[in-house]
Design brief:
alpha/beta, 7-stranded antiparallel sheet, 7-stranded mixed sheet, 37 helices, 39 strands
Amino acid sequence: MPKRTDIHKIMIIGSGPIIIGQACEFDYSGTQACKSLREEGYEVVLINSNPATIMTDPETADRTYVEPITPEAVIKIIEKERPDALLPTLGGQTALNTALEVAATGALEKYGVELIGAKVDVIKRAEDRILFKEAMVDAKVECLRSKLVSTLEEAQEVAKEIGFPVIVRPSFTLGGTGGGTAMNMEELLHIARGGLAASLNHTVLLEESILGWKEFELEVMRDRKDNCVIVCSIENVDPMGIHTGDSVTVAPAQTLTDREYQLMRDAAIRVMRVIGVETGGSNVQFALNPQTGRMVVIEMNPRVSRSSALASKATGFPIAKIAAKLAVGYTLDEIPNDITRETPACFEPTLDYCVIKFPRFAFEKFPGAEAILGVSMKSVGETMAIGSNFKEAYQKALRGLEIGVDGYDLKLEAKVASVEDVEGELPKRRVDRHFLIKRALKMGIPPARVAELTTFDPWFIDQFAQIVEMEHKLVAQAKDRPLPLDLLREAKRMGFSDRQLAALRGREVKETDLREQRKAAGIKPVYRLVDTCAGEFEAYTPYFYSSYQTLDQSRVTQRKKVIILSSGPNRIGQGIEFDYCCVHTVQAVRELGYEAIMVNSNPETVSTDYDTSDKLYFEPLTFEDVMNIYENEQPEGIIVQMGGQTPLNLSVPLLKAGCKILGTAPDSIDIAEDRKRCRALLDQLGIRQPESDTCTSLDEAAVVARRIGYPVMIRPSYVLGGRAMMVAYGDHELGPFVQAAFNASPGFPVLIDRYLERATEVDVDVLCDGKDVYIGGVMQHVEQAGIHSGDSACAIPPHTLPKHIVDQIKVSCRKMALALDVRGLLNVQMAVKGEDIYVIEINPRASRTVPFVSKATGVPLARMAAKIAMGKTLAELGLKGEARDVPWCAVKEAVLPFNRFPGVDPILGPEMKSTGEVMGLDLCFELAYWKSQIAAGQKLPLKGRVFVSARDSDKPWMVEIGQKLVGLGFTLVATAGTADALQKAGIGAEVVHKLVEHESPNVIDLIKQSQIQLVINTPSSLVARADEIKIRSEAITRGVPIVTTQDGAYATVGAIAYVQKNDWTVRPLQDYKA
């Protein structure tokens, strides 16, 4: 069936910001879809609010709307663009839910827009729990005993019927938001209350518990002719009870018998048919009782999912690209496989290797959050590793996770060394459960007993035990002579890293010693192709993984080549922004005629798409793995400045090993990172910096802090995302804060700065070629200095700073860039207090603001920086002076994951907590800020009741905010202290009880009853009171917008005032650029 010719313009809905449960895999899928549809001749219109994506680059789609992903915005775009079709299956749950809401308004019928990829009835059958269960009866596929409820009273009755434990699954949510496992009635009421609030249609499914069962996923594609292919089988190493996004997973499935697999395969195809998916990919999840063999279907996603990205990268099969082509009429037998160029897409992939996905968590960012996993996803990123066997892939995944371990090693054991009752802890769904399993095996607990306690399949426990047995063999070898070569070769085939082996040999043995012994013996990795067909056909896309087998399939060319090191797994502080910069670097390197070689371990990204670079090495970003690739390829050099802190931390060891580092020299990077060298440079340039010093002990820290004067900012060296950054207001806080900083960056000094209160923070992105400087953008933060730059809203152009201050900032940045001999990007963070300008931090690398600045100004800074690193000058690139003054305003806002961590105080500070960002773009600051809030999930009200509460020192400005809100028609609600301050100013407020009074009504009562539309609440002291935390946490749970800073309050009220009087419009990025 040829492609459809009755449609010409297609609108794609993206997924919006990176959040837990919906990460950058949808940038990968959306980018693939845009390319796929445009190469077929379709005009593509895109909506997505996330500036840190390749899909929102103006070259990716024909018309790119960086707007909030809401039904209202989608309808405005449809009205303006008049697309023929709407494709919602490539933007995660956000796109699917938005499409359903748009369809419900009648707008699709009104404007003659067809929903493609998945029809409304298909989406409802897959997403609505009752309809799905009815469909499974028709498919003759067993479901779990369950019932849908819409009230807490119904939930109590159903729980009595099903019995505890009960799984709570909200309808129409992503990543298990609002879900959980209830062991008793009290837990049920708590989880169901949050689930009903999180659900799009305010329903939750109560389901019989299958804790301890085995979990599997099949990635399935189906076309209009009923051709079905199973792209990949994925098995959760962890048993049921842990969200699949938080579980370690392996592909292909390892413990299914052939009969079980065939039954599951047939069931998945029946599910696809009865749900009605006929133009794309879906993910079908199953549970299997290991004792009885009973198999049930858990759910299916009628769209490209998180697992789709993993399956694509694991097999080389481009699911999103093919799903887009199926949506416009092609069938699987008509679409060629890009990798083999011989087989069609209906040819099922075959794997002759093993793939492991390991999630990464950030519980350390959220004090008070329990590090226990469940059915609500909590991981912030993941790494993927490919090996010739499970053990090799598993150990590669662990070292690729970048959590300070080098495999299933001694450091990993040390992380759980304090656990006393190991057998008692093994049944718990701890975030470090895999580490605890190793400790149990090392203690001599039999593998069968470990399997019984954890409910892991015994096969997986046996694999871990084999690694432990090898470790025992290695430790037993004589320390005064080299390892026997057969044993060394066997260890390498099991995934042991050089550093891991060196640690087992003793303190006097270094990683480089092991490396030299291995190389001298000819024990080197070979590189194998990911080819979708287990070597049955020739593969044309060079996509490699390392192994210590014998056959080398690497294709080393004679072309000049450059290696680009990307950023590894997403984490708070190092996310999609850096992958964006690496993709632009690849594009620049290829434009200059070089072979671009990408190294990364993140399956969610565009950088690891098979056709982004000339060659892709899916490998951990460690010294050993990168050096192996460098020695195999012999490139002109390596670019390390684009992938965040991960590749930067490798620059010095790589340089010492003889690698050529392109761009800014590692010594310049060290000057910027080393506080004493940096201060000397700034003093020489006559540029101010807050008084500061470094310390290497707690006693030294106390002396420094008293000399500088409190409050002081404490920060570790060589970290991203403000890890362990805190403000100490006295000696009582200094000790624990400094110790936390030492723990975050062991072996490096801690930095102590004078904290500038009530200062305005500024970010500047700069390009420099060593002779000339280009100011890419000056961003003014909305929140004052003290809140991490990654968590603060910021605006281009600066919205309140005077021109002469901005000009001084630009002059200082030029001086710093030239003094550091920067060859590429430089990010400078500054603080303005009155007429004084201070430098807070200098980063001679790509920063997380680069994509935002590039979208706001129309200049692709990362691509230009890469060309400078390759030897081009600013003059040759046509860049002079500074970015032009734009006649519009762009606001970047952070997106925070507090809804995933109930009870955690959503107050911002020096340590970064956001997982992603959005961008608001319009002709004035107020409207751009309003759009950014809506896009970030803060649905600012235009009428209703506002709860205001402030500490005494904040009451003067809170009174002013109250006056403005009353003038806009809002009703104020406050507790006695704030209400009294308002009434003294002649402002009426409804008084509610404080929580400590244990009387009603209090503000939480009103929030639960949907009687509060906005909360403006600042902490009463440095240590927030428990009742304040409860109020802020309840607002987050209920989706009530909350503002916790003075500057945020003024910006919010200003935005509301503007939107009350003015309508808003949508316009594509291409029109701004023009």
